[in-house]
Amino acid sequence: MTTAAWNATKATPALNFTKPKPPTTKMPLSLPPCPLKCTKDLTLFKADNKTLEDPIVHGFWETACGEQLLFGKFLANWQQNYDMCCKLGMEPITLDSPAKASCMKSFVNGNNWKYNTRYWTSGVRKKIGGSFLWCKNTSAPFPTNMWGFSSPNTIINGSGNCAQMQIVKGNSSILLEDKTCTFLSAFACQGPTTPKPACEAPTCPIVPCVKNSVYFKYLADDYSTLYNVSSYGTTVEVSNRLFLFPKPIFTRSFNDAISYCCEFGLSLVSMHKDFMFDAVAKAFNATSNSAIASGLFWTSGTDMGCEDFFGFCTTNRLVRGEARWAVNQPDNANNSENCLALEINGGIALLRDENCDKKFRVICEGRPPSTGMKSVEEECALEYGLIKEQIDKMQNATSYTPPEKCFLKCFGEGTELYINDIIMLEKIIAQFGAIAGNDVNRLMDAYSTLDYCSNLTRGMDVCDKISAMALCGQQNSPDIVNSLIEALELTLAPPPFMREVVTDAVCPDFGCFIDEEKKITFDALPPSGGFNYPNVEIYQKSTACGKKFLFMYSVAALTHAQAFAKCCQYGLRLATVETPAKLSCMRTAGVENTFGQINLYYMVAASRLAKLGSPRWCFSNTTFDPTFAAPFSNDTNPLLFVIQMHFRGVILPPTRAWSVSSNYLACESVY
To answer: Which of 538, 632, 641, 666 is the one with CA 20 to 30 A from 564?
Structure first.
């Protein structure tokens, strides 16, 4: 079928994925006993009764603290968690010594933790209202100093009889919570009894990844742009990607190629999507530079440590079935070819395996300055031939055409909710704590919807699976789905490739980490509530103009990049006020009346760094309204690049240029 015919295919009929209503009768109080037997399910293992048949389906395997750890992908109550671990020849997590608790805290490493934040342990009450014990080591003292706020519940009502482990990203700690034993949470296991699963992905080399100052021109506040590109290579921008082709004299081994691209703030090219082969070919055709017109170039692909399981290290993606290979490739000649190069000839790019020590040329890639979600959307639209109007209509659709289904799969991959044909349930679950806050009913609704929709869609074609799960989520918990997208919008922002010739003002490269506790505190405030972190920050919440706002005074002055990151902690982003109408709405609604002063200016998400005459809004990548810019249009001081705005209805200019740091900032919700 041609692409045009495929796009013309009618959508499938509207589907109904409404989950069953929960029973109206209250579930009985539960105080499960510690299991006397723990039976291994041999049907899950190969003939040796030691090696799991399909280890990846259960979750993520780690080795730490003298244990093999499994952080599961599925939801379970306390008893189901215990049973799952037993079937795998393991047991629930047990923090039965100060050394074990300290080791686990170091292992999860707070902000760098990439899985769920709440898991069941083997901890359970001895009796209703009684103290707790570890089922696998009943004589070990229970660590009462690890209980979180308001835990354990000492009221004798049977409400919290099982112990859950909470990983707190904000302060890199581990806490224990008492929960109802029928509560659904991610399951987790420990134990040396199950051998480490057979590999299903390569082991990528650990190499230095550091920018080289020689290749950059540094501006204020640690911002930088590439400098003197023509002396070391050629850059080409194609299909929402920026490619750097260093000169032929700059050849590298595979490991060195990864580090070499890092020196430019880029990544060694990853051919994990079919369209990338065309994108690279277009990049070659877009230049008349014969130095890059043909030859062998390293990609980030390898099967080191896992023969025949090729994957791309810079994107953590396996090589797809539709990858384009050169004739008779891969062949692993002399059993020594474990790295993937691109053979480019006549504008055609094909993969081949080569010895990793050989020195080839390099292709580095990056994204142009743009928000992460926008880049993913544009890239997937390009791959499946959709236009913006079609994508906009999908939000309220009840069915999808085949291209739209695969667009959703592509979008899921780009947002890392779907990797290597596996739905990243643990990443979705990890967002639920911040989304639901202390609303237990909302949290349970989110868990039950995910459980229902992920089980409902198992076994379908990959494009059908993702699209059906999206419809199912929208039908059952639309507010949770929208909140999940909002969280992704905040956190998905790959560092942009900074062109040598700056056409618009430069926006900061910042890390976005949502502090679950701060977000919960902010969300729980009334529409005009305030909060004070003594000696740190004071803020006020306002709700108006279709947004939630946070106006903050920080005791420590913040740089522009730090202000972006600070808003992220609350699940917000630095405010974007693109139009006079929005500013008028905010002023009329009195969104800022926080600190008793009428002449305050707040940092917003606009910059004029490196291009004083062309300021822009960082999230929408649009030009700053010149009517706002009038007060500083003639200011040529390069250090006054931060834009601040005034939100009181008094006779003051609405904007001003400011230096690198400030104590005041304005944040807003994404939607």
So the answer is: 632
Residue 291 burial by Cβ neighbours in a 10 Å radius (0-12, 13-18, 19+): middle
Which pair of structure tokens corresponds to residue 174?
């581990």
20: in domain: no
Instruction: Name beta bridge partners: 390.
Output: none
Question: Phi then psi for 188, rounded to 5 degrees?
Answer: -150, 150
Answer yes or no: are the C-beta atoms of 170 and 162 closer than 8 Å.
no
Instruction: Give the residues of the chain that fall short of pLDDT 50.
Output: 1-10, 23-29, 155-156, 495-496
Report helix, strand or coil for 37.
Answer: coil
Secondary structure of residue 349 in the 3-state scheme: strand
What's the pLDDT score for residue 4?
A: 41
Assess whether 238 and 317 both reside in one domain. Answer: yes
Q: CA-to-CA distance for 435 and 419, rounded, in angstroms?
A: 23
Task: State if pTM tops 0.70.
Answer: no
CATH number of the domain enclosing 383: 1.10.238.20
How much is the pLDDT for 506? 73
Q: Do 440 and 471 fall within a single domain?
A: yes
Looking at the structure of the chain, the number of domains it has is 4
Q: What count of Cα atoms within 13 Å lies in the side-chain half-sphere of residue 126?
A: 9
Give me the pLDDT at residue 648, please.
81
Structural element, H or E, at residue 491 = helix 478-491
pLDDT recorded at residue 241 = 78
The reported pLDDT for the residue numbered 338 is 94
What pLDDT shows up at residue 189? 92
What percent of the chain is modeled with pLDDT above 90? 14
**Residue in the structure block whose two tokens are 């034993």:** 181
Query: 60 lies in which domain range?
Result: 42-190
- Note the helical H segments in 368-458: 372-384, 388-393, 402-414, 425-436, 440-456
* Co-location of 343 and 381 in the same domain: no
Residue 478: partners with Cβ closer than 8 Å, 6 or more residues away: none
Nearest to 554 by CA among 546, 543, 542, 565: 565
Q: Is the separation of the CB atoms in 71 and 426 below 8 Å? A: yes
Cβ atoms of 446 and 436 within 8 Å: the answer is: yes
| 361-406 pLDDT per residue, tens | 999 988 765 555 677 787 788 778 888 888 888 877 778 888 888 8
Q: State the CATH number of the domain containing residue 281.
A: 3.10.100.10
